[in-house]
Write a structure and sequence with these properties.
It is built from twelve helices and ten strands. Strand 7 and strand 8 form a beta hairpin. The site of SN-glycerol-3-phosphate has 11 residues, from helix 7.
């Protein structure tokens, strides 16, 4: 499984790149807002155009997703083309992020505009990351339209299941992959019992249907979900910086390091040229 960073913050991107395991970056309008506000709160000025260019150069050789912002075919297509034309020449690593369905209310009549945009962009060889996926059938549709990546939102489907059952929770709380039992029932959204199961179902379908689109597990909230989406068949997980930094953490690793560093004999220190004592 590839590890992407879910961030538009260049300091976080530099940090994650320094680990040597980063395969790509995903952004969205909220993450860009966060990064801009963080800079402004430090009294720094930001030129978003050069900031995006810097981000793309930092990630040369690794895909970076930049999202459209409109809710209709014409404008999404025009934004996607502008994003690709303007920014892909910087480091040849732009994926345009397009919502599977751009509607901002359930009664809107252009639910398929995202799919139409994806189809059009694919015909023009513009790589698409289809976002805001909450069902296997949405993933199937996005893949059929030609999306290179499909992004199911793991954490947000878990939020939705708890919200609709009026369960209080914190976003980083673990949600059981096999679902949340309530009496005799397991909470579900039209058969989907958790974000991790959503990834599993998409993975099974893509395997059976021989679909080449990559499954990019998004909205990851804790390190256990990283393990679970890998097991469920995600090709990529996009991970927030604070979760990525915790993956190596374990109390027994710390305890073991303390013991090993205490037990080192001077002869061994000398032999390997250790500097710490
Ligand atoms: O990649 C999508 C992601 O940024 C959403 O994460 O935690 O806001 O659901 P979250």
């Amino acid at each position: 499984m590839k590890f992407f960073l879910d961030s538009a913050d260049t300091n976080e991107i530099k940090g994650a790149l320094s680990f040597g395991i980063l395969d790509g970056v995903t952004t969205n309008p909220s993450l860009i807002k966060e990064a801009v506000e963080r800079k402004k709160s430090k009294g720094e000025r930001i030129n978003l155009d050069s900031y995006i260019r810097q981000m793309l150069k930092l990630c040369k050789g690794k895909p970076v997703s930049l999202e459209v912002v409109s809710s209709d075919y014409k404008n999404m297509l025009s934004e996607a083309e502008t994003i690709f034309k303007k920014y892909n020449k910087v480091a040849k690593n732009v994926y345009v992020k397009v919502p599977v369905n751009p509607c901002t209310d359930l009664k809107c009549t252009n639910q398929m505009d995202g799919i139409r945009v994806i189809r059009k962009l694919s015909e023009k060889n513009i790589p698409v990351n289809c976002t805001l996926i909450f069902t296997p059938e949405q993933a199937l549709l996005a893949a059929k339209a030609g999306a290179k990546f499909v992004s199911p939102f793991v954490g947000r489907i878990d939020d939705y299941l708890r919200e609709t059952a009026h369960i209080k929770f914190d976003k980083s709380d673990y949600f059981p992959r096999e679902g949340w039992k309530k009496g005799k029932w397991v909470l579900n959204d039209n058969g989907i019992v958790s974000g991790v199961e959503l990834i599993k179902e998409i993975s099974v379908i893509f395997g059976k249907q021989k679909i080449k689109s990559k499954i990019l597990a998004a909205s990851i909230r804790n390190t256990r979900q990283v393990r679970e989406v890998a097991e469920a068949g995600a090709d990529i997980a996009t991970i927030p910086f604070k979760v990525l930094g915790k993956i190596a953490e374990h109390v027994k690793t710390v305890e073991g390091m303390n013991k090993f560093t205490k037990d080192v004999v001077p002869e061994y220190v000398k032999l390997i040229g250790a500097k710490h004592r």
